Amino acid sequence: MRRALWLALAPGVLVVLAVVFVISLFLVKILWAWTVPDLFPKAVEQGLVAGEISWFTALKVAIFIAVLSGITGLRGKKSSS
To answer: Tell me, what's the pLDDT at 52?
Structure first.
């Protein structure tokens, strides 16, 4: 019974994970294009910083943010008492 339930739910869970993955990449890409040119207009103009990033770069930025969040989450859970 339990195995049948897991097999029935697995495709739905995979679809939800894929949608969340694509949305997170889309958000990184949009937020980069929205904020970086406003924060660093001269650097973007001179080509020192990219005004827009590729999907692969958005993936790398998302992974970097996830790793940093995981590290700070681990540190934040430790009790100092």
So the answer is: 93
Cα gap 9→31, rounded to integer Å: 33
**Cα–Cα distance, 50 to 39 (Å, whole number):** 12
Question: Which DSSP category does 49 fall into?
Answer: S
pTM over 0.85: no
Q: Judge whether 37 and 50 are in contact, CB under 8 Å.
A: no
What is the signed CA dihedral for 13, 64, 25, 59, rounded to 10 degrees?
-100
Q: How far apart are CA 28 and CA 66, in angstroms?
A: 12
Which pairs with CB-CB distance under 8 Å and at least 24 residues apart come from 13-22? Answer: none
pLDDT of residue 80: 53
pLDDT tens per residue, range 8-22: 888 999 999 999 999
